[in-house]
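User:
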Amino acid sequence: MEYFRQRFVEELNDECLVTVRTFEWPSADVLQTMAPNDYETHFSDWVASQKQSAKDRAREFLERFGCLDRFNRLHTQLERQSVLPFVGAGLSRPTGFPLWGTFLERLTADYPTIADPVRVHLAAYRYEDAAQLVLDRMGPHVFAEAVQNAFGSRVKTLKGPVQLLPLLFRRGCLTTNFDYVLNRVYEASDCRLKGEFAGARLNEALRRLADEPHCLLRLHGEADSPLGRVLTGGEYTACYGDGGSYREIFKMLIANTSLLFLGCSLSVDRTVHALREIKQAARVDTPRHFAFLPLTEGMDREARRNELGQADIHPIWYPPEDHDQAIEDLLISLLEGGFHD
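Assistant: Predicted structure:
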């Protein structure tokens, strides 16, 4: 409820300040102090209204894009706790952290000779090549300092639908993000993470998860340590290629669990390639995966469905005009029981 309370307070305070001569107070503080019972009643009514509005919006675009039945299937699996969220940078952006491409492009301000080639790589979704170019130019120590500065902050105010994840997912999370948003979100909830694995420790994650679920798997490392960080093409190949540990981790995780991709573009993605190869090599059917993805104008839906379908990832489309609102609507609809009517 803290997520909704924060939103409620912000909405009240946006209305006006309460002013008496030279003194001013936020509206929410005045209402809570002067009429605490009315404050709580108003808050409860506001939350109910917000949830219903979210479900109405979600139903409308799910029906419009032909995804309502798929969404209900996801909800059914979630109720059985057979879904793990795979969290990308899009869910950290509302808190103030940059997307990976934006971060790399900003670094070229001090290294103008690589600015154009980096932009070319980013435009073609060759993030590994762009990262390698920047890393080679800056050197590992300067680059590590830049990563920590950009993604290591723990003082930013949490924002956005990422705050709803602890209400839905109690088995654990996977992420490729370097930041600590998920740590802070779960620490602020009544569903604290019981462990965290990154770098070389990922090899022990599956055994630990079997004994003590609800851990965070940092597939690409973390902001405060360069150890085990996955950035360059060589590092991706070592982790995701033949003989790499990540393919085995995915294989074990998805034996009886679906992944839900949140805040991930899945455009040119090593995870998609790994899941595609696992599916092609599998001798038995494995659970399907889901992804909340924007249905952008001009997209070739058939080609995109076929591309994702090869990895057994099935999109739940949402309108691209307001990503955060649409993802919030979908998560609230999952929390409120889906649309089984």
